[in-house]
Amino acid sequence: MTDGLKCPECNSENVYNDGSLWVCPECAHEWNPEAAAGDVGAGDTGVRDANGNVLSDGDAVTVIKDLKVKGSSLVVKGGTKVKGIRLVDATDGHNISCKIDGIGAMNLKSEFVKKA
Predict the structure, then answer these.
(1) Which Pfam families match (predicted)?
(2) Cα 28 from Cα 21, distance rounded (Å)
(3) Are 32 and 17 contacting, i.e. CB atoms less than 8 angstroms apart?
């Protein structure tokens, strides 16, 4: 029936085909096995920006929307360029450590920046 195909999220064997996607009824995960097979060798461990570009230490990025700084009244305006970023492993989603002029050291989420 599924030819040994399992859900990549919960490892369930109860998956079914829905058009071009496979669906797991247990965890509601949907995936395309052809696209997933192509990404395995592409080094998917990298941090990507809002446009899907791979980021690395020392890159310059641009903030794509206004971001409120938690615990203060400051705002990082969209279009702010940040130079010399460092990638960090953070469990809260803030995977970029940087210094912003006028604000200081802070962490950003990669989904709110684009590579400059």
Answers:
(1) YjdM (PF03831), Zn_Ribbon_YjdM (PF08274)
(2) 12
(3) no
pLDDT in tens, 59-72: 999 999 999 998 99
Give residue 94's identity as a one-letter amino acid code: H
Residue 52 gets the label, from left (phi > 0), alpha (psi -120 to 50) or beta, of left
pLDDT tens string 81-103: 999 999 998 778 899 999 999 99
pTM: 0.60
Fold of 1-39: N-terminal domain of TfIIb (2.20.25)
The neighbouring-strand residues paired with 107 are 97
55 within 8 A of 46, measured Cβ to Cβ: yes
